């Protein structure tokens, strides 16, 4: 019994010393490209290394970057985000009127086609029939942890992390588990990340930020 207790204590010490799996930082730099929606209106983005400032004043757009192949098997993601001013709660399942403060897109394709895809355009990538997208959202009128089908894309599913409102939070998401819940299959290869703010339908103003975005490939 004493020996077992010592082994458990030693194991606990090792876990405490090692700590959680380290993440790979995703820098907010010149590798991100802005893409508009429909009327091609533009948000304002300020890239500050590990920090991104976003202003959306009756506008909508998305910034996008490809993910390095070494991060294609990332199983988790984490980040901090803050909303100082946000839009009103909307129905995210309805096309038009579905504004939200912030959304982070994780784009996946099957391993066989990952290398042959053109990753410079998020719109072109989403048109590929093998593409799946998980979108983590702060906004809307839905309960946190709701999984919602996109009204715009048949292979895009939204998970609501925060309902509409302001504040500051840290998020830690399990890409594998959420992909399984959203699509009923095992996670494919991660090839890109997108971030958007959407205020055009409600004539709103969003002032928000994201910091310390990381991908974790193993625990």
Principal-axes geometry comes out as: globular
Number of helices: 4
Most strands sheet: 7 strands, mixed
Uncertain runs? 1-19
**In which range does the helix fraction lie?**
10-25%
- Mean pLDDT across the residues is 87
Counted up, domains total 1
Strand order, main sheet: write it out: 2-5-12-7-8-10-9
SSE ordering = HEEEEEEEHHEEEEHEE
Name of the CATH first level: Mainly Beta
Query: Under CATH, the topology is which?
Result: Jelly Rolls
CA distance, first residue to last residue = 30 Å
What structural category do the secondary elements indicate? Answer: alpha+beta
- The tally of beta strands, per DSSP, is 13
Rg from Cα: 19 Å
CATH architectural grouping? Sandwich
How much strand content do the residues show?
35-45%
What does this structure look like?
Helix content is 16%, strand content 42%. Strand 9 and strand 10 (156-162) form a beta hairpin. The protein is built from four helices and 13 strands. The protein has a single domain, classed as Jelly Rolls. The strands form two sheets. The chain has a seven-stranded mixed beta sheet. Strands 1, 3, 4, 6, 11 and 13 form a six-stranded antiparallel beta sheet that branches. It has helices at 2-18, 111-114, 122-127, 175-183, and strands spanning 24-25, 33-36, 44-47, 51-57, 60-66, 76-85, 100-109, 132-138, 147-149, 156-162, 167-174, 189-198, 205-216. The model is unreliable at 1-19 (pLDDT under 50). It has 219 residues and is α+β, with helices and mostly antiparallel strands.
């Amino acid at each position: 019994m004493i020996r077992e207790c010592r082994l458990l204590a030693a194991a606990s010490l090792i876990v405490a010393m090692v700590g959680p799996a380290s993440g790979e930082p995703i820098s907010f730099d010149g590798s991100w490209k802005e893409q508009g929606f429909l009327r091609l209106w533009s948000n304002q983005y300020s890239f500050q290394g590990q920090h991104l400032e976003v202003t959306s004043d009756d506008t909508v757009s998305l910034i996008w970057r490809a993910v390095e192949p070494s991060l294609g098997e990332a199983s988790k993601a984490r980040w901090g985000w803050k909303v100082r001013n946000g839009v009103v709660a909307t129905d995210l399942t309805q096309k038009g009127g579905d504004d939200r403060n912030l959304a982070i897109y994780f784009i996946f394709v099957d391993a066989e086609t990952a290398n042959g895809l053109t990753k410079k355009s998020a719109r072109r990538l989403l048109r590929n029939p093998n593409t799946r997208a998980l979108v983590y959202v702060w906004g809307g009128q839905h309960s946190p942890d709701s999984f919602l089908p996109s009204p715009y894309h048949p292979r895009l599913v939204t998970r609501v992390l925060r309902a509409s409102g302001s504040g500051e939070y840290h998020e830690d998401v399990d890409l594998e588990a959420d992909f399984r819940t959203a699509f009923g299959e095992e996670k494919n290869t991660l090839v890109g990340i997108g971030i958007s703010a959407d205020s055009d339908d409600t004539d709103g103003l969003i002032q928000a930020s994201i910091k310390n975005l990381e991908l974790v490939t193993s625990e």
